[in-house]
Write a structure and sequence with these properties.
54% of the residues lie in helices and 8% in strands. It has helices at residues 20-33, 45-48, 55-71, 89-98, 103-106, 110-117, 124-138, 152-169, 209-217, 229-235, 241-250, 255-278, 282-311; strands at 7-12, 38-43, 80-83, 144-147, 177-180. The relative contact order is 0.14. Bound molecules: adenosine-5'-diphosphate and tryptophan.
């Protein structure tokens, strides 16, 4: 019998070293979900170009993001892992969508709008970003797109691109749904704000024990209360409230002991993932990506054949 699983598609920006916020907010929810679907995981290297990375860094980050997901438990035999730039149909379809949507509509997209609001100059790639993302999603007849809250608006753009195309040229694309990854909501950083590499308040996911200890010891604690709330908020990701209640009760006021307990808990999660990550070399990753890109290309080519016929360029 043919597969009845729904298609799940998501994209990852190859943007550097991960922190535990990324793990609980993106990697773990994906790893928990993907096997129930016919799933695809794309490294969005062309999206990354909108922030002008150095070539050597981009090359390494493409490899690294795949290692991160494999280390977090994603099995390449059970999902198609591929590189956006290796399937040329993505940029081709993006162009077609760009010709269907008004400039005023793209001006409302967060990635672009926020940059302009900060007085920064956006490049045309950032402006068109939602249409490339729409192409990523729609090329594969995607049903659901698991993303963080910050990407919800972009999935809306993909739905709009599908609708616009279907109206202009006849039913061709499925309008995808988002599925917000909200296993834990927002993971707080060492200062209590959202953990983010731009705030320098992170605990590294693939850090050594020393690096983790240094970050945890740096968690800001307020000496007035009995419960160090920033420590607790992170600890809550690793243990139940009941477990934490007795731990925090027995170490009341002893912030150092509580931080040491948190270091142990983080280390127990991270150590096996680091070992798995260290066991992968760049060639293993390259093979995974080549294999996945070949599969994705075959799917994208057949969809684009139909699209080219519909828009009237196939002679
Ligand atoms: P950063 O804020 O460090 O730059 P990114 O924007 O690169 O992180 O996020 C990559 C993924 O990790 C996204 O899916 C995002 O929703 C998730 N993520 C990032 N920070 C957190 C956090 N503090 N809590 C939960 N999820 C997060
Ligand atoms: N824009 C997404 C991000 O910054 C990455 C991405 C690119 C994506 N294409 C996608 C996510 C398609 C979901 C589906 O995180």
């Amino acid at each position: 019998m043919a597969s009845v699983k729904k298609r799940l598609f998501t994209g990852l920006q190859p943007s550097g070293t991960l922190h535990i916020g990324n793990y609980f907010g993106a990697l773990k929810p994906f790893a928990d979900l993907y096997e129930s679907y016919d799933s695809m995981l794309m490294v969005a290297d062309y999206h990354a170009l909108t922030s002008a990375p150095k070539p050597e860094e981009l090359r390494q980050n493409i490899i690294n993001v795949v290692k991160d997901y494999l280390a977090a438990g994603v099995d390449p035999a059970k999902t198609v892992i591929f590189q956006q730039s290796q399937v040329h149909e993505h940029t081709e379809l993006a162009w077609i969508f760009e010709c269907l949507v008004p400039v005023a509509y793209l001006e409302l997209a967060h990635a672009y709008k926020d940059k302009v609001a900060k007085g920064l100059k956006a490049n045309a790639g950032l402006f068109n970003y939602p249409m490339l993302m729409a192409a990523d999603i729609l090329l594969y007849d995607t049903d659901i797109v698991p993303v963080g809250q910050d990407q919800k608006q972009h999935v809306e753009y993909a739905r709009e691109a599908a609708a616009k195309f279907n109206i202009a040229y006849g039913e061709t694309f499925i309008e995808p749904k988002d599925k917000i990854l909200e296993g834990v909501g927002v993971v707080p950083g060492t200062d209590g704000q959202k953990m983010s590499k731009s705030y320098k308040n992170t605990i590294p996911l693939f850090g050594t024990k020393d690096e983790i200890a240094k970050a945890v010891m740096g968690i800001v604690t307020d000496s007035s209360g009995e419960l160090p709330k920033n420590v607790y908020a992170i600890h809550r990701l690793f243990r139940s409230e009941a477990e934490l209640a007795s731990l925090y009760d027995s170490h009341k006021g002893n912030y150092k002991a509580l931080k040491e307990a948190l270091i142990e808990d983080i280390e127990a999660l991270v150590a096996p993932m680091c070992a798995k990550r260290d066991s992968l070399d760049d060639r293993d990753v390259k093979r995974v990506l080549d294999d996945g890109s070949e599969k994705a290309r075959a799917m994208a080519e057949s969809k684009m054949k139909l699209v080219r016929e519909k828009i009237g360029i196939t002679l």
